[in-house]
Amino acid sequence: MKSEIVIYNLATGSEEVILLLDQHLEAPNWTPDNAALIVNGEGRLYRVDLSAPALATIETGFATQINNDHGVSPDGTTLVMSDSTEEGRSVIYTLPTKGGTPTRITPLAPSYWHGWSPDGATLAYTAKRGDTFEIYTCPVHGGEERQVTFGFDHCDGPDYSADGAWIWFNGERDASVSLWRVRPDGRDLECMVADDRVNWFPHPSPDGKYVLYLAYESGTQGHPSERRVELRLVSAEGGRPQVLLELYGGQGTINVPCWAPDSQRFAFVRYHA
């Protein structure tokens, strides 16, 4: 499996291939200083400097089973990651952006990180505490978690709007996976994108105008890898989505926040068999 890390430019509709490697890489985050991407692969985290793209391992101590749910704090000083080394199931940790010893945030597993509030104070994640995965939040340094969604068959991919007023996520009901938004306190639940596609991982742009997401073919179960998928763009207020491109991808393509600070570019991973 070859992994192609790509930057897409909204203004021109063009792509720039940053790296093409014989290694399975996933889920690029764009650092707030516009200097690098953070990706995961084979249980580790890597930094890819945009000035001279190459994989540079980030030291994560005991954590060597890192999955594709990781990100960077709004101020750029801290990484958050989801890792299953200690529990055998995913738990959320933080550590310095340059690497170091992880600090455990969520005492319960499984917990998969997906969003950081714009003020840097709160983490949003998907977690299973009963029969289904729902959306939760907790303080960035740990503490009591708040359940935000209720009554879904499955929820995933929570990510904050630029003003912190909404949490976007994908939610499944009656075998249909749509995009939703909800206030951080659980009020004002709204379905924003509902069609015949299976829609996952909505990411609001930093300027508050758009939401980027991954669309699978109708009937897809879960969020598998190695499928024909589309990257789509929709207004942050809803409306008719725009298809930006088709690609071979899925799981690992845009699991986590991937926008550039300027909101004109985003990073994604394409796969080649």
From TrEMBL:
Per its UniProt record, what Pfam families does this chain match? PD40 (PF07676)
Entry similarity comment: Belongs to the TolB family.
What are the TM regions of this chain, as residue ranges? Answer: none
Residues folding into a coiled coil are none
Identify this protein by name.
Transporter
The family database entries (SUPFAM superfamilies) matched by this protein are listed as: DPP6 N-terminal domain-like (SSF82171)
